[in-house]
Specification:
The protein has a domain of 98 residues. It is mostly helical and 165 residues long.
């Protein structure tokens, strides 16, 4: 008896069951569910049921295939509803899966954007600090004017000896 290894894929087995592509079936179910949710479908169903009821109520007995309680029509509508509900649920599940993936991608993008904003904020704060330490043009101009004023004024004589001669 061979040992089943979990790190290797299983060999394909031949089965009697028919193979179907779940993605193709899912896409088909979404198309059907989208159609079932349209006004066009409601109009088609209304016309179909009206024609059915009018024909079977007005037509001669030998041409009416579903007389008054319309049992066959009820069976057809029940069958349609029994298939429509799972198809709609399948389409909703596929949409929920797509929404989950999109939400995860949005979350990752948001985290990346948040990290970039935080980095840029730190860079701007660093630049502000660095600019605060730099001398501005007005500051340098003011200092140069003060030095020019000092150079233009004659030096005041200070008596060092303390007495008059």
């Amino acid at each position: 008896m061979p040992v089943n290894r979990l790190d290797q894929p299983r060999d394909l087995r031949r089965t009697i069951r028919p193979h179907y592509d779940p993605e193709a079936f899912g896409r088909l179910s979404e198309q059907i569910a989208r159609f079932l949710g349209t006004a066009r479908f409601l109009v088609y169903m209304t016309v179909f049921i009206a024609v059915w009821v009018i024909w079977n109520a007005v037509a001669p007995r030998n041409l009416a295939w579903d007389p008054y309680p319309f049992i066959f029509l009820t069976l057809i509508l029940s069958l349609q509803a029994s298939y429509a509900a799972p198809l709609i649920l399948l389409a909703q599940n596929r949409q929920a899966d797509r929404d989950r993936v999109q939400s995860e991608q949005d979350r990752m993008t948001t985290e990346r954007n948040q990290a970039e904003v935080e980095y840029l904020t730190r860079e701007i704060a660093g630049l502000r600090l660095a600019l605060g330490e730099l001398a501005t043009r007005d500051y340098i101009r003011g200092e140069l004017e003060r030095l020019l004023d000092e150079i233009r004024e004659p030096p005041a004589r200070h008596d060092v000896g303390g007495g008059s001669e």
